[in-house]
Design brief:
Elements: E1 3-8, H1 16-28, E2 33-38, H2 60-71, E3 74-80, H3 88-97, E4 104-106, E5 113-115, E6 121-128, H4 132-139, H5 142-153, E7 158-166, H6 175-188
Parallel strand pairs: 1-2, 1-3, 3-6, 6-7
Antiparallel strand pairs: 4-5
Helix pairs in contact: 1-6
Length: 190
């Protein structure tokens, strides 16, 4: 049975992202083995205090998160796009969890590295105020490009799909349609 980890990187439990993550989780449970992480609920220091020069001990919540990531076949990330990037809680989580030795390892005397999160797929589901066409064409899609290529694919995650819900600040965004789309994605395990 496919194992799915739903990760919500929005700091507000009443946010659209949190609601969408919960909808995906509920619908995916019908057919798949699913776990969920709301990053706002984890207790950890947001700073990688010594960079990669000295090990910063992982808190119990981060050790458990690493086990959940290892366990999963498919990672589903929910986050808002703020200032062309993602919230601090998600950035901190990535800095602290996707460490050398866990997610990747640089090779000695080489520009290459080994990827440890292979055989995993992923979906990024993000919301933004900016119309998506504008975000892609004018800004170059920075948060999605960085998260997909420079983070997930760097660590070996393949087949990273994206779903963007944009122009959320409109007077009447199609939230019911977005919820239905996320429900269908969860039900299909994509």
């Amino acid at each position: 049975m496919k194992k799915i980890l739903v990760i919500c990187g929005h700091p507000d439990r009443n946010s659209l992202n949190s609601s969408l993550a919960n909808i995906y989780f509920e619908s995916a449970q019908i057919k798949f083995n699913v776990r969920k992480l709301h990053l706002r609920d984890l207790k950890f220091n947001y700073n990688l205090e010594f960079g990669y020069n000295q090990r910063t001990e992982l808190e119990p919540d981060l050790l458990e998160a690493q086990q959940d990531i290892k366990w999963a076949d498919h990672l589903v990330w929910f986050f808002p796009t703020w200032w062309g990037s993602y919230p601090a809680v998600l950035k901190a989580f990535l800095d602290r969890v996707l460490l050398p030795g866990f997610a990747f390892k640089y090779r000695d005397n080489s520009v290459w590295w080994d990827k440890f999160l292979t055989n995993k797929t992923s979906r990024i589901i993000s919301t933004m105020h900016t119309p998506y066409w504008y975000y892609r064409l004018i800004y170059g899609n920075p948060s999605i490009k960085a998260f997909k290529r420079v983070t997930l694919e760097f660590c070996g995650v393949s087949d990273v799909k994206t779903t963007i819900f944009a122009a959320t600040q409109n007077k009447t965004p199609p939230i019911d349609r977005w919820k239905k789309k996320v429900e269908l994605l969860g039900y299909s395990g994509r």
